[in-house]
Amino acid sequence: METIAEHSTVFPKLNVEEEPELGVTEIESMCMNCQENGMTRLLLTEIPFYKQVVIMSFSCEHCGYENNEIQPGGEIAPKGITICTKVATARDLNRRVVKSDFSSIRIEELDFEIPAQSQKGEVTTIEGIIDRVVRGLEQDQPVRRIQHPEAAEKIDEFITTLQGLKDLNSPFTLTLSDISGNSFIENPNAPLKDPATTISHFKRTKEQNHLLGIFTHDEVDECSEDTGSSPKKPKLAEVPEEVDSLLKPIKEGAWKLEELQGEVLQFQTQCPECSAQCETNMKVTTIPHFKEVVIMATVCDNCGSRTNEVKPGGGIEEQGVKIEVTVRGKIDFSRDVLKSDSCSLLVRELDCEVGAGALGGRFTTIEGLLTAMREQLIESTGMFMDSNDAETKERMDKFFGQLDEAIAGNKQLTIVLDDPSGNSYVQSLNDDGTPDTALRIIRYHRSFEQNEEMGLNDMKTENYGEEAMEEGTGDN
């Protein structure tokens, strides 16, 4: 028996080649301009190359007031994001921008910044961001010219400078920083690398997490104790065995390590496609000549989605690794490949670079890696494949044609896997220990920025126990 939600998704994807199945929800709400009732329309969708969003549009038929905003509909990203774009051409001004409520925007050359939470989230362009600033500055200029003529004159000069940015009198740098990680600037060269944009991620501070409504269990318990609103929840070790709990501790000696590694563990997760509850299977296995890995596979009974992910079982290696493999044809397609979620992928002949985390961690083959890259790009580029953008469509058609030739074994490729954590692997075809001429492995020392992104610069791994004892002795 099928349920109502079967084969449905809360956030349908935008695809211009298919009939849209987007459900718009209409809610009658009060107009803040004239106090009459207007109409709010909500659209839940997924933006290609980005994530799930809720688009809201309000209009009032009484006074004509209109407003629109966008809010992230998915989970808050694990880290904040900073996107720095060099704007030098009209094409750069037309880059689409998705900004959340928590994003701040800065124009370096003018030392000008739009603080976070000063504007609602929206879908716009770089030119649209400048236009909104100009409209805001011009709003009270007539009154300001009478009451404060000197301040009005300076604002007019600044507006002229902003207009010069739109006219591209000189290049400028726009930096978007978002602690929620839910902002995005379009790459007009997709799927190729964007030479004018740099993207970095940062770890949020405790205060920034609180601003997003993220609290640890200890902080929630402390707040409950202070307010007396609810009793403190017992810790896992304090829960009696006869009381049902989410996770029951395994009794000591009940399972040997070897037996536990041979078991397939199951736990409840949320489907990444339709957000329904589903089960994820997890198993620890060993890759020959490499290390232990954790394989996770998720199957959703609601929408039929199937995903798998592989994570290294060990820690971060002392050095990063860069693996170059020459794909000469079908003979190289059978190579086993372990790609961690921190590994980036480069296909030199196609001038295509896939950043770390784009394909996730996976254990597959060379052929499977190319096929997965093709499927994800086709799925993600529907927004940019419309007939109005002939240049982008022509570029994407040419790229996919070359990629199809490579998958068919008719085109030689050089694939480069660059993993700063050192947890990626490509199988050698020579089992007798002789060098594989089509496989080149280079180990390197990570840069400060790479260590910073993985949190290694702040990690103390030597003599920390002794220092803690010394501090305790000093306090006494």
Task: Throw out a few tags for this protein.
Jelly Rolls, repeat, N-terminal domain of TfIIb, mRNA splicing, 24 strands, 476 residues, translation initiation factor binding
Description:
It is a single chain. By secondary structure, the chain is of the alpha+beta class. The chain folds into four domains: 1-74, N-terminal domain of TfIIb; 80-211, Jelly Rolls; 256-314, N-terminal domain of TfIIb (Single Sheet); 320-453, Sandwich (Jelly Rolls), CATH 2.60.120. The protein is built from twelve helices and 24 strands. The protein has helices at residues 90-93, 126-138, 141-147, 149-166, 206-211, 217-227, 257-262, 330-333, 366-380, 390-407, 448-453, 464-475; strands at 24-30, 37-46, 52-59, 66-72, 80-87, 96-99, 103-107, 112-114, 122-125, 172-178, 184-185, 197-202, 265-270, 277-286, 292-299, 306-312, 320-327, 336-339, 344-347, 352-354, 362-365, 413-419, 425-426, 439-444. The strands form six sheets. A five-stranded antiparallel β-sheet has the order 8-7-10-5-12. A hairpin with a 6-residue loop joins strand 13 (265-270) and strand 14 (277-286). It is globular and about 85 Å long. Residues 1-7, 16-20, 231-247 and 383-387 have low confidence and may be disordered.
